[in-house]
Each structure stands twice: as C-alpha cells, then as structure tokens.
Amino acid sequence: MTDQKAAEIAALNDKFRSGFFVPSFGPRPVPGRIVCTSGIAALPPETQIHIWGQVSDFDGFTDDNDPHGEHDFGAFDVEGVGKIFWKIDYYADSTCSFGAENPSDTSQCYRILTIMLASEY
Length: 121
Fold this sequence. Notes:
alpha+beta, four-stranded mixed sheet, 3 helices, about 25% strand
C-alpha cells in the first residue's frame, strides 16, 4: 500500500471516529457503525460515555501501534477499568459478509469500530 493510500484511509478513519457521536440528518460521510463488547456494555453509562469520548478524540498514533499508518487501532487506560482497545475493520457493505477491497473509497467500504476491554481480546 502506498503512503498516500494509507493517509487517505487514516483521514477517513479519523473522520469516522471523531464524527460518529455528532447527530447526522442523512447518510454519514463515512459509512459504518460502532459496537461495544459485553465488558464495555456492563460498565456504568458515565464510564461508557467517557470511553467513547476517548476513542473519538484518540490521537496517540505511533509506529508501534499504527505500523500501516491507517489510524485503525488504539489503546488507552481508564482509571478503575484498565486498558481499553478499539479497532476499525473494513467490510464491503453493511451486511459485513465480505472484507472491503478499497477502504479509501466510502462507496465500497463500511467500517465497524469495535470498542473492548483489553482483557476481552
């Protein structure tokens, strides 16, 4: 993959994460949905909201946690909860039956952002 293609995917992933909790009156510019594991769902609502905000605002990308430059994974600690992981996967459409061939094309890619406790990985 070229650096330019990775940068395009990273920009779309950042837009997806940062804009997901903003109300939208029509199709989202970057199609997808967010899912949480049972461990996240079991946390108090205030803690879940805090975690979602941390995922949305995450910018701690390094060569170690983002080797392909796509901004598709992050990890951070939450006091009293522990390590949180989030990961974006790419699918061809909302049925999530097949992987996307071109994650830089929003007409051919549906993103799933999974938020989980590291212990659930």
